[in-house]
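Hi R.,

Here's the chain you asked about this morning:
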Amino acid sequence: MERTATAGPSGPPAPSGGPLPPDAVVDDGADRGADAVVAGVPVEVPRAPAGMPHQRARGTVPEGVRAEPARLARSAAGLRGLRGPRPWRLLPTPVGTPFTFGYAALLAVTSLVARYADPAVVDALRQSSSTDVAHLVRAPLLVLPASALWIAGGVVSAYSLCFLLVLTALERRIGGLRTAGVFLFGHVLATLATEVPIGLAVLTGRLPDSAAHRLDYGISFGVAASLGALAGLLTPWLRWPLLTVFVGMLVQDLATFDDPMTSCGHLIAVGLGVATWPVMRRWRRVRLAETGAAPGTG
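And here is the predicted structure, written out as tokens:
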């Protein structure tokens, strides 16, 4: 680029390309598109070699450099989402899923008590924590949580494994306190939905008084509700097969008519979990914002 300048008040013109006077002041406007001024005399400033960047204005960050951290963050999030399967995350840990881990430890203790303690003591403990009509009328706030401290069938039951897998997956997605709320929501409402009709049937004489003392305890209602809620956070190719298989098993249990009230309670609990899908998805977004995780890393 040919540069021009305006003559100043003093000093003879310097030859083009010659040495500059000691008091020469150079204003190189290469970055602002201005002409060079050398002691008020027009001079020719050599161009920078091709490919060499001009001097940048002080305090200005290039657009590409400004965008680089954002691109790196998006790339890192994408790499986290592309990580391979991590089977150990299927089980609870004290740090990652404290609610599920602590609850599982408590259930392990009660299962050991049920297995090795005196049968009369175990029977008395289960009777006192049963959510039958008689106990619900006398001490509902005590028996509703206490009944969820026992696993029907012990730690070898299918609901024990289902508890670990479902609550771990749910807690990793929405957090511990919200998972506890979903579990209690299903446990309490499904229990009331099955026991209140029994109480009304006893009052009207449709069922004998012994039905009000039917032993009722376990974690299955809470697990069923948690599974229904978790399904709403899964991809469709996992969600619908999971619900189809689980609900199919519950319908089969109901068809056998071995324990129709409990089977109805399981179906009600799953329906309660499914009803929470809008809330689950909102909680999932909140959880992602809290942890800063990528959507696919739950």
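One quick note: The radius of gyration is 37 Å.

Cheers,
M.
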